[in-house]
Amino acid sequence: MTTGERSRGAGSRWSDEQVDQFLGTLLRAGVLVAAAVASVGGALYLVQYGLRPVDYGQFHGEPPDLRTVHGIVGGAFALRSASIVQLGMLVLIATPVARVASSLVAFVLQRDRMYVMITTVVLALLIFSLAGGPG
Fold this sequence. Notes:
- The protein has one domain (15-130).
- The protein is built from 5 helices and no strands.
- The protein has helices at 3-8, 16-49, 69-77, 81-109, 113-130.
- The chain is elongated and about 60 Å long.
């Protein structure tokens, strides 16, 4: 056991290398899952609507069920292709948020108070901004 391992309480906390490996794997997995989900949704969408003529003369906004997490998840479970694509985008957006949350856990385990405070503020700002902020 090296001096660094003894001083850090080897076995009870994550090493910097373990944290880096975990976060890298988390980011790769999040992007791959998001791409797979969006690709499946896109393929289903093309099967369902690929031959339908497109009217670019009028703007049609997204329906209300594609504007909320609840609506997107419900639509994805109902196998609606547009909802599945949106779910892929949600997973892609959630990936860096999960990285920050995981970093916070790692810093707590490492007992690094300064980084715990900084990461808590960053996570709070991310959640606040993604939730739509005030009003």
